Amino acid sequence: MFQRNYMNPGKSGPAQVSPAQVSPAQVTPAHVHFISSVDPFVVEALCRLVGCCVVLETTRGCIEGTILDVKPDHVLLQLNHRQVCVRIAEIVWIMPV
């Protein structure tokens, strides 16, 4: 049950690794920039339809439900007995029912 000691090659014993060797700063950049496209016209249209039953065509298919809430990046729908969040970036078109 001995591991190679990477700090002192050739010696047996538990491996000792300094925090600098496994620091997330070495793996990820110091400043991460996220880019998100918000379509204000789609968000505005969805906001006007809160409480209404709609059909949303997404890149994965159609979803029919009642709009409960709208955020800049997603819409919350009530489908029968469950709620789902749909990313606005995935919406192709919206049709009130």
Automatic annotation (TrEMBL):
Residues 1-22 are annotated as: Disordered. It comes from the Bacteria. It holds the Pfam family DUF2642. This is DUF2642 domain-containing protein. It comes from Paenibacillus nasutitermitis.
